[in-house]
Write a structure and sequence with these properties.
This protein has one helix and no strands. The protein has 47 residues and is low in regular secondary structure. The protein is flat, with a radius of gyration of 13 Å. Pfam families: CotJA. This is Spore coat associated protein CotJA.
């Protein structure tokens, strides 16, 4: 069976920055490419 995974952009679900949204530390934000964990989507390369 073939399994397909799709990543959808977070702006579909979060149209504005809610107050009090958790944030990564500056170091982690640079590593993950976003300040907010809710917008982070890890990249898993194909095997």
């Amino acid at each position: 069976m073939t399994v397909k995974l799709y990543s959808t952009p977070p702006e579909l679900y979060i149209s504005f920055q809610p107050p009090g949204l958790p944030q990564f530390s500056p170091h982690d934000a640079l590593r993950y490419g976003t300040l907010w964990p809710a917008l982070y989507s890890p990249y898993e390369p194909r095997k």
